[in-house]
Design a protein that fits this description.
The structure holds 2 protein chains of 2 kinds. Chain A is of the alpha+beta class. Chain A has a domain of about 110 residues: Alpha-Beta Plaits (2-Layer Sandwich). Helix content of chain A is about 35%, strand content about 10%. Chain A has a 3-stranded mixed beta sheet. In chain A, strands 2-5-7 form a 3-stranded antiparallel beta sheet. In chain A, strand 3 and strand 4 form a beta hairpin. By secondary structure, chain B is of the alpha+beta class. Chain B has 2 domains: about 35 residues, no CATH class; about 325 residues, Orthogonal Bundle (Cytochrome-c3 Hydrogenase, chain B), CATH 1.10.645.10. Chain B is built from 17 helices and 10 strands. The radius of gyration of chain B is 22 Å and the shape is globular. Chain B starts with a helix and ends with a helix. The relative contact order of chain B is 0.18. Classes of the chains: A alpha+beta, B alpha+beta. The interface between A and B is large, with 41 and 50 residues.
């Protein structure tokens, strides 16, 4: 019968209309500002810098200004300037820190590549998305002070991932401490045992106790020897969270 | 200047013009004989029915189209040249933005090309995950398409909203897995980025299981609708010879009855292990192209249920895969997949440096669009909008 298809279609529409009042599968809209939805844990928006301590965010940034993220960022929205002096990091090792660290969020495309390539777990993805600004240039350019957020905040927004990162960092720290102890002991023992040519090979080691590559596979792959500065060894695959 | 030179495509138009003779010369003939004015209308680039910034310069005789010239390039973002200046990894998020409805598939095509270039193996679990993502993407792309098609037909928003409701469920899955609804950036060379949790897999399995119910409802609502049949059957016919000659791929080609599916022909990934059929059309009209999408979604659901059943445990990343400082050996490779829109290929030439020497995308949307004039001649403007909708273009991919 002509028109039966239309009537069947209208029946479906009616079913959907009625269903939208009681069937959860058909109730999909949320009144956004009043009813905030829960973001999934993996949600990402813009990067932020992790600092160990909330009271002194600038002094305890994990970032050592290695500029890997700056180089890898596809839209080139990260600006880093290395510091002139060095500060001790969480492992007690003297490291550079970023004198300038800026992210232009109007250029950033939230691709997470900076997070994946960072060998120090220093940059992570934030979840804040209500970031309307009145100035197109200055308000959307986030500087070091605006980007630094404590590790506790990271635990809040990505609990599982942060726990995994913390576990790995503590393991690294422990290994570094043991290494330092071992090298110190070797140093103490060395002058007594053999003050011969072999000494010169041992001597430089204590100067940089933490530089030795860790055995544990890391999130990242180390750069080529010529490519410069990462203290990490041969790495494994990207770990999933 | 003859019309064939103006149009740029289809130098010999074979479809009959409004008054019998071949369409090209008829433009002149009609004008001379009846002194009727031909009207040149520019549809787009800002036009809601062109699915983006796409422009059609249509020459109208009354309401019939006697000439149609597609104009694109308004969304050109220099993707290929940018990719030649960034690292291999750096291009991956840009591929999300090619076909922004199906970022998972586009990622896979690019990863496939790079893996071919470097001879990189991919673990089994990652292969299955890729198929799951690609088929979920096919579901969301095709539901989007049938929704928009009805929007073009004039059913303002009801079918589109129902389709979007289902699409949103898939996007929620993608968001909880990869962190972003549409710009997933999920595939990596040698595997995938995130391993889904068992809960995620269960949710995805349930979604795929329930999808046929949505399709049944959708078809009950629209497939038998008399207005829809009158508006789509016999409209925008494309015969298989033309389609093959123009290099069309995907559902548009298969609607014309040509059995060509890269999943079957190339057997990339682990597709040969799956049991599915390739639907074929018989008439090559808009209705066939619509049905092709519905049938493909049903096949995708089949593939998904097999993938969830057989998904092996294991690593999702090849242990030798390098994320940073990736330099494939010198050579060239062409990786292609059956994206929801057709054959999507990435052609790469490497000279051993961290950047590709040459990077070229074969976008199915652009190539499928080249026969738009062929399909539209003799039809009205309202039909041209529907025909364009049935080709399924995404301007991010057309213009790159």
């Amino acid at each position: 019968m002509l028109g039966s298809g239309i009537i069947k279609g209208l029946a479906v529409t009616a079913k959907n209309f009625v269903g939208s009042y009681y069937d959860p599968a058909r109730m999909t809209t949320v009144e956004y500002p009043e009813q905030p939805t829960v973001l999934p844990e993996n949600y990402r928006n813009f990067p932020f810098l992790v600092s160990e301590n909330a009271t002194d965010p600038m002094g305890t940034l994990r970032c050592v200004a290695c500029q890997i993220c700056e180089k890898e960022c596809p839209p080139q929205c990260i600006i880093i300037e290395k510091s002139k002096d060095k500060k001790p990091d969480a492992n007690g090792k003297m490291q550079l820190y970023p004198a300038v660290f800026g992210i232009d969020t109007s250029v950033c495309m939230s691709c997470q590549i900076c997070v994946e390539v960072c060998p120090f777990d220093a940059i992570k993805m934030d979840k804040v998305f209500e970031i309307a600004a009145t100035d197109r240039f200055l308000d959307l350019y986030l500087n070091r002070e605006q980007l630094a957020k404590p590790n506790t905040y990271y635990h809040q927004i990505h609990p599982e991932e942060a726990a995994e990162v913390d576990g790995r960092l503590t393991a690294d720290r422990k290994a570094a401490e043991e290494k330092a102890k071992a090298t110190a002991a070797a140093k103490a023992a060395a002058p007594v045992a053999a003050p011969k040519p072999a000494d010169s090979a041992v001597a430089p080691k204590p100067a940089s106790p933490a530089v030795k590559p860790q055995d544990e596979p890391r999130r990242l792959v180390s750069p080529k020897p010529g490519e410069g500065g990462s203290p990490l060894g041969e790495g494994g695959p990207a770990k999933s969270s | 200047m003859s019309t064939s030179q103006v149009s740029g495509f289809n130098t010999q138009v074979s479809a009959p013009g409004p008054f019998g003779g071949p369409a090209g010369p008829t433009v002149r003939a009609v004008h001379d004989q009846f002194h009727g004015d031909l009207l040149e209308v520019s549809m787009g680039p800002q036009h809601p029915s062109t699915h983006g910034v796409f422009r059609m310069v249509v020459t109208l005789d009354g309401e019939q189209i006697v000439k149609l010239k597609p104009v694109f390039g308004y969304l050109h973002r220099n993707h290929e040249k940018i990719a030649e200046n960034t690292s291999y990894l750096g291009s991956m998020p840009y591929t999300d933005r090619l076909d922004y409805l199906c970022s998972m598939s586009t990622n896979w095509a690019y990863a496939l090309a790079v893996e071919k270039l470097d001879g990189q193996p991919v673990p089994d679990r990652a292969q299955y995950l890729r198929i799951i993502m690609a088929e979920l993407t096919r579901l969301l792309n095709h539901s989007c398409l049938v929704g928009f098609l009805f929007n073009d037909l004039g059913t303002s928003f009801t079918p589109l909203l129902y389709a979007f409701r289902e699409r949103e469920k898939i996007l929620d899955l993608f968001e909880s897995l990869s962190g972003s609804r549409m710009m997933c950036n999920y595939q990596r060379f040698g595997g995938c980025r995130v391993d889904p949790s068992p809960e995620w897999l269960e949710a995805a399995r349930r979604l795929a299981e329930n999808y046929p119910r949505f399709l049944d409802e959708y078809e009950a609502m629209l497939t038998g609708n008399e207005i829809m049949l009158a508006r789509t059957q016999g409209i925008g016919r494309l015969n298989s010879t033309h389609a093959i000659n123009a290099g069309l791929t995907g559902p548009v080609l298969r609607a014309s009855g040509v059995d060509y599916d890269v999943r079957k022909i190339d057997g990339y990934g682990v597709y040969p292990r799956f049991d599915f059929r390739v639907p074929l059309g018989a008439h090559g009209d808009t209705y066939d192209r619509y049905m092709m999408r519905i049938l493909e979604m049903r096949e995708s659901v089949k593939i998904l249920s097999q993938a969830f059943r057989d998904l092996p445990a294991g690593p999702i990343m090849d242990p030798k895969a390098k994320l940073r400082g990736f330099r494939p050996k010198a050579g060239e490779a062409y990786g292609r997949i059956e994206s929801p829109k057709g054959e999507l290929g990435f052609y790469l030439i490497s000279d051993g440096s961290p950047n590709p020497y040459r990077y070229r995308v074969r976008p199915p949307s652009l190539i499928n669009l080249t026969l738009l004039e062929e399909m539209c001649l003799g039809h009205t403007v309202a039909d041209a909008v529907v025909i364009l909708g049935s080709i399924d273009i995404v301007l991010g991919e057309v213009d790159r």
